[in-house]
Amino acid sequence: MLVLKSLAGTDDALAASAHLLGQAHRLDPDAVDVLLDHPWLAVWAVDRVRHGTTGRPDYLPFAALAAAALTGWSDAAVPITPYRGLVPVPGLGVLRRRGGGTPMTPADLTGRHWTPARWWRFTDQSVTLDLRVDDLDPYRDCFGRPVAARLPPQRAADLERSVGHAWHLLVAYAPEHAAEMAAGISTFVPLAGGTGRGHSITHADGFGAFAADADLDPVELAVTMVHELQHSKFNAVLSLVQLHEPTDPARYFAPWRPDPRPIGGLLHGTYAFTAVAEVWAALRAHPGLAVQATARFALVRAQLERARVEFARVGSLTSAGRLWTDHLAERISHLTDVPIPAAAVAAGRREVAEAERASRRTISTG
Asked: Using CA atoms, how far apart are residues 41 and 294, in angstroms rounded to an integer?
């Protein structure tokens, strides 16, 4: 809200949209609060502050139109400039409309040119995940990778079943992470084909949104959702607290990557994979997943143990950063105490050692 206020103070058109958004918030603060959490609004706003212009229509008028619709303010007229023939209405859908700027009201969001957003609700053991699957909004293309077009009905149905199964696994076997997911994840953007199986990504400013392969199986999807939410959380922390000196030139061995990483990358990965290891550890209790989960847990735990050693090389951590890595080290220690077969332990450590030998030549200590 502070970022939007800052922008509105420098641009009359944005000021009008912000004023309308504020009026809608007074009508129904709960509904507009959900809108203010929309990831593409945050991505646009931060980018606008940093660069002054984004090269395409501002997103705030689209948000103002959505706010009017959500609060039942049917006659609110919002000046709208379509983007490539589309008017995205955050959280609600997309309207196909050609031409230049024109006032629009919520009454325009209907008819054959209107495509509603996909919102799915999954409830298991009284724990609910509300998830927007965004394959419409043109501003979802912020991840640096091609995103999928509108999913055909059958593919969307397959994905819905996969998410539902993934949600069941998390609620049943990793309830603490499921509770976190219910509070933190809001948006899933399917990636286009050819991005590589299992690829997933977040945007630093788009909290709660992630992009991933739509064809992930339910087990990998469950782990992926947990993994990506950790990156969102860590990005939020970094916006509030300095964990390391930004000038640290060193590169560190990150066992899950072939390339040496800056300190920020090492911290990101260790935090995310700690949660991943916790999920794999929990899934060992599933009768049909015990073998797979044990092998994956052994590998990720070995990676984390090696990353914990790497922390000792870091000289650029602030006091807050040391507190952070100490807490991570404690979580990793708990994982180290989990009993698994010796063969799985050896296989995980062997793979990490091979990865380290492959990357050692390129690691720079600055």
From this structure: 40
Instruction: Report the length, in residues, of the chain.
Output: 366
Q: Tell me the longest C-alpha to C-alpha distance in the chain.
A: 68
CB 29 within 8 A of CB 71: no
Domain holding 357, by residue range, is: 241-366
177 DSSP 8-state letter = H
The helix (run of H) or strand (run of E) holding residue 314 is: none
Contact between 122 and 164 (Cβ < 8 Å): yes
> Which amino acid is it at 335?
L
Report the distance separating Cα 237 and Cα 276, nearest Å: 19
CA 122 – CA 197 distance, rounded (Å): 25
- Total domains present in the chain: 3
Q: Which residue type occupies 302?
A: A
Kind plus residue range of the DSSP H or E element containing 94: strand 93-96
The answer to whether 45 and 4 are in contact (CB under 8 A) is: yes
Q: Which of 59, 88, 116 is the last residue of a domain?
A: 116
Question: What does DSSP assign to residue 83?
Answer: B
pLDDT tens for 69-124 read 999 999 999 999 999 999 999 999 999 998 778 899 999 999 999 999 999 999 99
16 inside domain = yes
For tokens 């698994």, the residue is 340
Residue 1 tokens, joined:
């809200």
Q: What gap in Å lies between CA 39 and CA 304, rounded to an integer?
A: 30
pLDDT, tens only, 146-179:
999 999 999 999 999 999 999 999 999 999 999 9
| CA-based end-to-end distance of the chain | 40
Domain assignment present for 231: no
Hey, is 69 helix, strand or coil?
A: helix
State the DSSP string of 19-56: HHHHHHHHH-HHHHHHHHT-HHHHHHHHHHHHHS--SS
